[in-house]
Design brief:
The protein is α/β, with parallel strands linked by helices and 311 residues long. The protein has eight helices and nine strands. It has a single domain, classed as Glycoside hydrolase/deacetylase (TIM Barrel).
């Protein structure tokens, strides 16, 4: 068998057969992590200077960008997320004092100081979700760098501190390099590659990647072959959790939520059922991504020496 190509810029091996014991607090079998994406006011819209309306992740199935026009239905769905959906999720998680990470688009945070105040009041980890909720695949390195620097500045102004976590989502081949070059993030999450955090090495030393999820995610309510109702959402989350809980090695489970999606009552009901389900188990650590990052930095920095180098 040929030896792996050291110049191949992907890691297909990962932990392999020897996944580390994450040593979750309290001997937890699963670290459960909830993400609330806050994008409302940062999406494509000609009011924001964009060429066309938004067409991604709304209940207008099969939506197309409208060049030079506002799409009033789409705009109102995003408005639902900030006007109603966010507050429903905020109350649900607040009732159980459940840690949450926000993937917050900087321009959206800046437009809604009342919501930012509520996030801070709850002690949520507010990670950066970029300057705008747009697709960065066609940006040059220089263009995306400008957006990242501005996202950090606007985020710090809106929340009172610079972000320690980063997730672009609609990312480019330049995104990870820019995160590593910045050097100020405790973690980033533009990866779906593992059930545990992992290290990579960049020009400023080890960097922690905490993978995210698009399967245990409410975006599947509006994707083909997705969730038809709250029961299906609950069933998928429950099955994911139960399987991980009973595996030989402890793992992490991410749950992705959007204010305009899971904030709708029928979908929120499925989430509420899942919160009730995991409350029945003792060996569960519900944590923010920042909690997990700090734990991994403290307990597993030694793994960084064997991590791949990313230029």
């Amino acid at each position: 068998m040929a030896s792996p190509d050291s110049n191949y810029l992907r890691d297909l091996l990962g932990y392999g057969r020897a996944a580390p014991d994450p040593k979750w607090p309290g001997g937890a079998r699963v670290a459960v992590q909830f993400v609330v994406n806050f994008e409302e006011g940062g999406e494509n819209c000609i009011l924001h200077g964009d060429d066309a309306s938004e067409a991604f992740l709304t209940d207008v199935l099969g939506a197309k960008p409208w060049l030079g026009q506002r799409h009033m239905n789409v705009e109102s769905m995003f408005e639902y997320g900030s006007r109603a959906g966010f507050w429903r999720l905020w109350r649900m998680f607040g009732a159980g004092k459940i840690p949450v990470t926000v993937f917050g688009v900087a321009s959206a945070l800046a437009r809604n100081p009342e919501i930012v105040a509520a996030m801070r009041e709850a002690g949520w980890d507010i990670a950066s979700h970029g300057l705008r909720w747009i697709d960065y695949k066609d940006f040059t390195l220089e263009q995306e760098s400008v957006h990242m620097r501005e996202a950090i500045r606007v985020h710090a102004e809106a929340t009172g501190e610079r972000p320690l976590g980063w997730y672009t989502g609609r990312s480019s081949m330049h995104t990870l390099k820019l995160v590593l070059d910045d050097g100020g993030f405790l973690y980033s999450s533009d990866s779906y590659a593992d059930d545990l955090p992992y290290w990579i090495n960049g020009p400023k030393g080890p960097h922690l990647v905490i993978p995210y999820t698009l399967d245990a995610n409410d975006m599947r309510f509006i994707n083909p072959q997705g969730f038809a109702n709250g029961d299906e959402f609950f069933a998928y989350l429950r099955d994911t959790f139960d399987f991980l809980y009973n595996e030989d090695e402890p793992k992490m489970m991410s749950v992705g939520l959007h204010c305009r999606l899971a904030g709708r009552p029928g979908r929120a009901h499925g989430l509420a059922r899942f919160l009730e389900h995991i409350a029945k188990f003792d060996r569960v650590w519900i944590a923010s991504r920042l909690d997990i990052a700090r734990h991994w930095h403290r307990e597993h920095i030694g793994l960084a020496s064997a991590a791949p180098r990313i230029a």
